[in-house]
Design goal:
The complex is a heterodimer of chains A (477) and B (771).
Chain A: E1 3-9, E2 12-18, H1 24-30, E3 49-56, E4 59-66, E5 79-81, H2 95-102, H3 112-127, H4 149-165, H5 171-176, H6 184-193, E6 210-212, H7 218-221, H8 223-227, E7 231-233, E8 243-246, E9 249-253, H9 258-263, H10 265-270, H11 274-277, H12 284-289, H13 292-298, H14 304-310, E10 315-319, E11 324-328, H15 329-332, E12 333-335, E13 338-339, E14 346-353, E15 359-366, E16 377-386, E17 389-398, E18 405-406, H16 408-414, H17 421-434, H18 445-463
Parallel strand pairs in A: 1-5, 6-7
Antiparallel strand pairs in A: 1-2, 3-4, 3-5, 8-9, 9-14, 10-11, 10-14, 12-13, 15-16, 16-17, 17-18
Chain B: H1 4-10, E1 27-33, E2 39-45, H2 47-51, E3 55-59, E4 84-85, E5 91-97, H3 100-108, E6 111-116, H4 123-128, E7 137-141, H5 144-147, E8 153-161, E9 173-179, E10 183-188, H6 193-204, E11 211-215, H7 230-243, E12 247-250, H8 253-259, E13 266-274, E14 280-292, H9 298-307, E15 317-326, H10 340-358, H11 362-368, H12 388-398, H13 401-414, E16 418-431, E17 440-447, E18 453-457, H14 466-478, E19 485-487, E20 490-491, H15 506-533, E21 543-546, E22 549-552, E23 555-560, H16 561-570, E24 576-582, E25 587-589, E26 594-596, E27 600-613, E28 618-628, H17 636-654, E29 686-691, H18 715-728, E30 736-738, H19 742-750
Parallel strand pairs in B: 1-12, 8-30, 10-11, 14-15, 18-19, 28-29
Antiparallel strand pairs in B: 1-5, 2-4, 2-6, 3-5, 7-15, 8-13, 9-10, 9-12, 11-20, 13-14, 16-27, 17-18, 17-24, 21-22, 22-23, 25-26, 27-28
Helix pairs in contact in B: 6-7, 9-10, 14-15, 15-16, 17-18
Classes of the chains: A alpha+beta (477), B alpha+beta (771).
Chain lengths: 477, 771
Amino acid sequence: MKTRVNFILNNKSIDVEINPAVVLLDFIRNERLKGTKEGCKEGDCGACTVLIGELTNDEVLYRSVNSCLVPVGNVSGKHIVTIEGLNQGDLFLNPLQKAFVEEGATQCGFCTPGFIISLTGYFLNLANKNSGGVIESLDGNICRCTGHNSIIRAAQKVSDKIISENKNLSPEILTELKVIPEYFLTVRGRLQKISQTGSESITDSKSYSCFVGGGTDLFVQRPDEMMNSQIKLLHNDKSLYGIDIKEGYCFIGSNTSVSDLRESEIFKRYFPEFHGFMELFGSTPIRNNATVGGNLNNASPIGDMTIFFLSLNSVVTLTDGVSERDVFLKNYYLSYKKTDRHKNEYMKCLKFNLPEGNYFYNFEKVSKRTYLDIASVNSSVFLKTENNTITEIYLSAGGVSAIPLFLNKTCEFLTGIELTVESLNEAVSIAQKEISPISDARGSEEYKRLLLTRLIYAHFLVLFPEIFKTEDTYERL
Amino acid sequence: MKDYDMIHHVRGESQFIDDINFPNGTLFASVFYSPVAHGKIKNLDLEYSKKISGVVSIITYRDIPGNNQIGGIVQDEPLLAENEVHYIGMPVAIVIAETQFIAREAVRNIKIEIDPLPVITDPREAFAKGELIIEPRIFSNGDVDKAWNDCDHIIEGQCESGGQEHLYLETQGSFAYPVEGGGVKIVSSTQGPTAVQRAVSNVLGIPMNKIEVEVLRLGGGFGGKEDQASPWAAMAALSAKLLHRPVKLVLPRHDDIIMTGKRNPYSSDFKIGLTKEGMILAYEAVFYQNAGSSADLSPAILDRTLFHCTNAYYIPNVKATGYCCRTNLPSNTAFRGFGGPQGKFVIECAISKAAEKTGMKAYEIQKKNLLKENDEFHYGQTAKNVQTLSTWKAAEEQFRFEQIRDRTEKFNSENTNFKKGFAFMPICFGIAFTNTRMNQANALVNVYTDGSVSFSTAAVEMGQGVNAKIKEVVSRTFSINHNRIKSETTNTTRSANTSPTAASSGADLNCGAVYNACNKILSRLKDSALQELKKDDKNPDKIQIRDEFVYYDGKKTDLGWEELIELTYTKRISLSAHEHFATPEIFFDRDTNKGNPFRYHVYGTAIIEATVDCLRGTYVIDSVQAVHDFGISLNPVIDRGQAEGAIIQGIGWMTIEEVIYNRDGKLLSDLLSTYKVPDIHFAPKVMDVRFLGEPNPVGMFNSKAIGEPPLMYGIGAYFAIMNAVKAFRPGTEFKFSAPVTPEKVLMNLFSCIDETDNITVAAENNKGTSL
């Protein structure tokens, strides 16, 4: 199966017929651009980080991604930037590269191009006024040599300097500062000219063996299989993007990336804490690429997004391209990695009732490493109260069952219950009966049981500090 | 000072094995390994895979022309399994195909039937069953048995320290091609080019002079490529030799993690005796080292555990016993610290427990027992230029220890959700290969007629900056600018019979050899200059080169570096030198286990602080503050980077890096999604490593080795976290088990103390491992 792919790689136009499941990393390295490294091929090390620039509202918006998890079929009409595309002249160092050398922020050098790319993405995003902190922008890159302190010093130094000396960063200013080469300024016009294949909608969904969203799970788990499958890249279907409010519902297109969701004004308004929760989801490049639909359909028992949306009592809309049907997310997961989705269906969107009135929500996640790790246990809660009595509650937990779990019985018990230490203790013991964790690399069964108890307590300590005291939760001591 | 390697790194121009532009006709190798930890091979079915279009050959042990043997210290490690398999990941067959993709597909289609045999993953079980790779090793001093009678407190205990995946960002790999005359040339990502050459020679059955090994640089090594780069090089060379084609073998990450060994896990028993004043009179320790399936470097690693089992303390009566235990895991191997960290962890556990039992503070016991000048180590060496108390006091003063202590106590009295803990961690680490004969190096220095200089040594550049340090030595010795000097690749033809770049000694040994070579050339240059300037003067000592000019009798002349070189060439005097260096004054008797094994020791003291979230069992390392004995650094940016990187690696080993095998010998932490190393958010907010600044009289330009010692500061993180846990749950006795993952912290905070097994967590079923 081959597809025509048309994009700009650094300063070079690419137009090829290619298997769309070839990952961008392999494509780039085949082009003899060897600065982009293969470190793990599972999006966990960042040595293969590249920037993807996409025309958005007539501007080129750049995001860092793990090129090992991007099917090349997803990059049509885009600008791909590798380390070679940042170099200007022999032995010339741009301010970022210079800072890394001065601070000794590179030792063996294998991870370094990825860091420089991510940092460049940070400055390009600053130009677009859409960015977290400079250190957060490097959360998808692992360095095994430096321990990262010298990298922090280098990144902080160069960002302090650039930001203090330049009030309004624009691509033009970044070229003047030599952060990016001048050809970047031509990219917008060139991308406009690349013939867009337009929105590809699906007519015959039966001909595909696999639907692919961002690819951040599928290309970790079975990249070789993808090469030999009839895959359908949903990425190019524009109708699957966006976050909208209609008739009291919030609709999220299945292709919406985690980063888009995190930055969305709707989420910032209704769930201001969500932005912080999602810092624990993957890393910046993963969030830039991973989609809501992909995370939900991967059906991992521990999917962060899934756990959050379970607690909003969400509904997913499935389609085969012709007809549609709705399923409650809490009923969507049947057994380990198995969903109610038929083979010829894909997820169109997810929706939930926009909350109103006096509502509370919280998300908890504990993993071995706090960032860029998969949870040992995660849990999310949404509830409403009247006079300290719970009127409505949705509580979910991941890592404690073969599926992402909606804690039905615990919710039933808590509905209509007054918020007291005793009721919370009772809820915790009901939850223990609903779960069936197993021992694996993320923790023993016993640990996961204890951890869920702790996280349920944590929800209520965080949400109702005036009612619950930490000491109340130590009854097991 | 510009380090050109760094410039290439930040521009993405530095080449690693996988980046080499391979010639047309290159084939790609993929390795089929045993899916079973122990058993007899009943049947190996290659037929289907052989028929896949694009598969060129599948190689098994039967195809090996020489010996199917790559063991270094002990000849107990076949390159490819013959009739038995000894661990999951043991190579059985090599598939050679036109593309990497086809090679992988063919590997997936190989079928093997194995009659399983009992699997041992625990070193104590191996010991009980007599599975010892070498005879037990015992280091002792004084008489512990008598000394117990003089002790007011005797404390015993057990502790576990886990493995550690190297996670060099560049995986193992080699590129090999046949050369005329039946030889092979190999480009390898190895710390030990000569080790590769020897292994290939043995496997191919051809002499070493027909094998050329070339190393450009490594994308990280950390000990993982000291011995364990050899099998992949041997497989690539074997394939290239048999097929007469270039062959590339670069392990995908998943294969690398499964097939290669890690830091040796240890299970240890300790017994420590103290006076009521807190002086340690006697210490006895038994180390059960989990060596994995073969010797590899484990016997040498075990020795270093025994050397460093008293850390930075003077103890008059010591008995340390080490058992090198064979298990059905990949052969564990060198990892930065080389057994030292495992030894030091045990005595720190002993001191921690002694503190609990006696009511003294651990840091008081630590400080009281620090090694002093002229104290004798239990292996017979006299401690010289000791910097234990000096770094301890400097750390106390510069980092305001009293404030740290008071603020921790105040915080803990005011908070229930969060608790803080701190720990001191002094270190003492001996510099030299403990196998004395390895302490030699040779180097080639060429001065070209235009005045540019190149050097070629046995040192392998893997990010530790060894070439920058050597360049500094060349620059200082000739008194010329850095930009005239270039480091060459490491190559067995230019530097033969070399030791691996390991044991923190790469800079010391190779700077020594380069220094000798430069001085050889320099003395010729001086003769040449003297002839030119003062034909009648016979004293070359009157000639000096300073800042690229010749000085005569302290006065600058018009003779510049370039003219001097041209002149010397014209006089038909050699501008090249190949010189040797052997570390002086070291020896060790392996029968008595006494001697003077180390050229010198590296010292230092760190204070580490941590905060534990007692609601969730998570923690952060708040600060690492250390005063380290760098000597006079040859390159402070590089040395600081080495110290910081090592510290974080040590903290990782003690905290979140958890190597988990199940009881079937299957690695559960076999991906980067299940094996977590420190990321940028993990970095402590405060990382302050200060230079003690005391010269090392026996070091190159008064410098000291840096690679490994600071890693051991990381041990302090374990105790800082556990001290915070103790603040939450005072009076409870906890098991000593590293790494102290968030799981162990939470269990320690809330559960009954149970038998949570660190090394082989009972995770029989990992089907549910989530992605």
